[in-house]
Each structure stands twice: as structure tokens, then as C-alpha cells.
Amino acid sequence: MAINTDQKSLLSDINVTPFVDVMLVLLIVFMVAAPMMVQGVDVSLPQTRHAVSLDQVEDPLVVVIDGNGGLTINETPVEMENLGERLSYIFENRSSRNVFLRADTNVSYGRVALAMSEIKNAGVVQLGVVTEPVGRLEDASHGN
Length: 144
Hints:
Elements (H helix, E strand, L loop, with lengths): L16 H17 L13 E2 L13 E4 L5 E3 L2 E3 L4 H9 L6 E6 L5 H13 L4 E4 L2 E2 L2 H6 L3
Parallel strand pairs: 1-7, 2-5, 5-6
Antiparallel strand pairs: 2-3, 3-4
């Protein structure tokens, strides 16, 4: 019985089908999960012609005033009385003394002004107010 050596040769091609399947599943998972990774508390921002984008800032410190008047610093709840103290403590370990304020449109001007005062008294060098570009909320409400 003679054995043909051509039948014993190894197949050297790589089967990439399972790899492609895994990559497509990962792509879909990240596409679905990415919008959920948006930082912060959901607030209805006021509209202006020039809006600040937090995406361009490295490691931003964000103070949020939600629609009920509640305060958070980078998603950590804080009381108005402790805001300046907490910011001063945070600034001990940060080189940047810049803060972004996101305030809901339904919050009273007095509450926003009080928060701005506490933030400035904590030693903030630059305070930015985050707004929504004009038309973005209108487009979202019309489904565009």
C-alpha cells in the first residue's frame, strides 16, 4: 500500500472567518455602548450661538446644576454649602484650575449665580459656562 505524500501536506491558510465575526460583534457593541458613555448628569442646557464643547478639553472638572437645583462635581453629589470646600480640596491635586458649569435652563438665576460665586471663591482661574448650540434642541425635537 503506497501512501501519496500530497495527501499528507498541511494546510497553511488561516481561517479568518471567526476573527471577522468577533470583530463585527465588537464593533456593534461599541457602537451601541458609546452614546451611553456620555459624561455627566442629563440637563437641558440653554441655547447660544457659541457653545463650549467639553470633548476638546482634557480631564475637565464639571459642576452640574440639574433641573431640581441639585449639584454634582464630575457626577459626585455635593451640597451648595460644601461646593467651595470640595473644589479647594480637588484643586490641591490638580494642575488645572479651570471649571465648566452646566446648569439646566429651569434653574433660577440666583442659584446659578450663587454656584458661580462659590466656584470663584474656591480659587478657580477660569470658569466656563457650557451651553447648547442654537438649533440642536430644535432639530432633536423634530427628529432630524
